[in-house]
């Protein structure tokens, strides 16, 4: 028994050593702003070389030849100059982050978030906080990308309030939101998006094949609880011990609420319930205002497509009410003042977002990502794997591809036409093949070097650790990415061998 404990301790020490090496090596990289500048330059040279080699592939979805485009050509230079501002303005994370900051930042500046957390802390047992943060993070994908802006920072504040390291709380939230984003207890937009692609590809083999948004529901619902437990354990046993005791100046005091704070929270809660009730009237009944006007469907409704503005309006509304009751918002100038202060805190993110946007746009325009995905898929086919190993191999390959292509639907549109027919011919159901794709695409999100939220993540890290760099992020999140992927593969194997349904009436084979 003692030998077993000693062996486990030795293994943990080795892991800490590896993570320390990752952090040290990563932090030797240039500042992220300059790193993205350098990567853009490297990408331009690589695109020129690959283009000169006349490399091209047949796009599996479109059936058209796609060649690598030279960023240093006349066409490439023209595109860079004419698209630079567009790349920045249309950067996926930019508008979302700034819009959410207006609402959440207002809630933070008037003290609403702190008050809610203080109230929560008196009821949440310390022992389950890590698990609860990951659990909420996993469910957060219902709010799409907005969850990344909301949940990890709140996780950091919860940990800070409990005297724990805020980066550990942020990491727990981010692991749930990002590495666990494809799992949920509810049917989300991801289910509808991927199932549509799967159906169109599957029908090239079987015209009667159809993958519905609920075909992965059982598997993904079970995943929520499994990932919450694993993520909480990693936070408590690996991440926080490695971070040590937080010694920063920032702190959150969660003492007893004053009568005025209780009154403000009570009134705000009533307004929040009224807001949600009105929203339910506009969404739930068939033919309601925020349903899809053509099909009446919820999954393709303006509600889900406009979830970010709705969340923004929700936070602005309840923050205004709380600030008004607390006497913090007295004139028309007060609310925009608090919002402006919140946006000032995001200045570092805006600067980093400019170069990050250029790099991701360069990568997409040059078609290098598609080239990597298709040739990698061809290699998987050439080695002739059969049985469950080929599904696992496909999952691992997807995990590598998702490091460079962060759009889940775009990557699936590339890989599905290659792997779906091949695996269907081996008698795997399209829904099970989709599961194999989703778990890998999700797990490695937190360690993707082209993650559009890296600037935001780094800004939060540096709030509590001024010396934090890209290496700090990767070292912190790597355990989640690896363990989530391994556990998910084991879960997939169990589903396969026990022939458990992945969804209502849908089995692996």
Automatic annotation (TrEMBL):
It comes from the Bacteria. Keywords: Membrane, Transmembrane, Transmembrane helix. InterPro entries: AbgT (IPR004697). The keyword Membrane applies. Signal peptide: none annotated. It holds the Pfam family ABG_transport. This is AbgT family transporter.
């Amino acid at each position: 028994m003692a030998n077993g404990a000693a062996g486990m301790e030795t293994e943990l020490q080795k892991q800490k050593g590896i993570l320390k090496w990752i952090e040290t090596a990563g932090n030797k990289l240039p500042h992220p702003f300059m790193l993205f500048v350098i990567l853009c330059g490297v990408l331009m040279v690589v695109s020129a070389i690959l283009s000169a080699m006349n490399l091209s592939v047949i796009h599996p979805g479109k059936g058209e030849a796609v060649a690598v485009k030279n960023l240093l050509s006349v066409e490439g230079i023209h595109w860079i100059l004419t698209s630079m501002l567009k790349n920045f303005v249309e950067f996926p994370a930019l508008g979302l982050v700034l819009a959410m900051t207006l609402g959440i930042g207002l809630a933070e500046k008037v003290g609403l978030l702190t008050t809610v957390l203080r109230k929560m802390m008196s009821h949440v047992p310390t022992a389950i906080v890590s698990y609860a943060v990951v659990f909420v993070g996993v469910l957060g994908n219902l709010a799409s990308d907005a969850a990344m802006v909301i949940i990890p920072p709140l996780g950091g504040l919860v940990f800070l309030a409990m005297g724990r390291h805020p980066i550990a709380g942020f990491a727990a939230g981010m692991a749930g939101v990002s590495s666990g984003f494809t799992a949920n207890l509810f049917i989300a937009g991801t289910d509808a998006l991927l199932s549509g692609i799967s159906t169109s590809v599957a029908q090239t083999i079987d015209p009667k094949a159809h993958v519905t948004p609920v075909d992965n529901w059982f598997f993904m619902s079970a995943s929520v609880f499994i990932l919450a437990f694993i993520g909480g354990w990693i936070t408590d046993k690996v991440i926080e011990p490695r971070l040590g005791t937080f010694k920063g100046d920032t702190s959150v005091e969660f003492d007893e609420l004053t009568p005025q704070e209780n009154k403000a929270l009570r009134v705000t809660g009533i307004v929040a319930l009224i807001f949600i009730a009105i929203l339910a009237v506009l969404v739930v009944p068939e033919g309601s205002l925020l349903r899809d006007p053509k099909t009446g469907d919820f999954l393709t409704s303006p509600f889900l497509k406009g979830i970010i503005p709705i969340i923004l309006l929700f936070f602005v509304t309840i923050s205004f009410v709380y600030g008004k009751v607390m006497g913090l918002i007295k004139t028309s100038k007060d609310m925009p003042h608090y919002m402006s202060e919140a946006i000032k805190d995001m200045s570092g993110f805006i600067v980093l977002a400019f170069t990050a946007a250029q790099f991701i746009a360069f990568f997409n325009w040059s078609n290098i990502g598609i080239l990597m995905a298709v040739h990698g898929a061809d290699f998987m086919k050439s080695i002739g794997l059969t049985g469950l190993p080929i599904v696992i191999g496909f999952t691992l390959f997807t995990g590598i591809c998702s490091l460079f292509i962060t759009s889940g639907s775009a990557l699936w549109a590339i890989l599905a036409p290659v792997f779906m027919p091949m695996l269907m011919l081996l008698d795997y159901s399209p829904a099970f093949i989709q599961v194999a794709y989703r778990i890998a695409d999700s797990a490695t999100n937190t360690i993707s070097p082209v993650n559009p939220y890296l600037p935001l993540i780094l800004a939060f890290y540096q709030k509590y650790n001024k010396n934090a760099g890209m290496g700090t992020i990767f070292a912190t999140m790597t355990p989640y990415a690896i363990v989530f992927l391994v556990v998910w593969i084991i879960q997939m194997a169990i589903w396969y061998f026990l022939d458990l349904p992945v969804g209502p009436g849908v089995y692996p084979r």
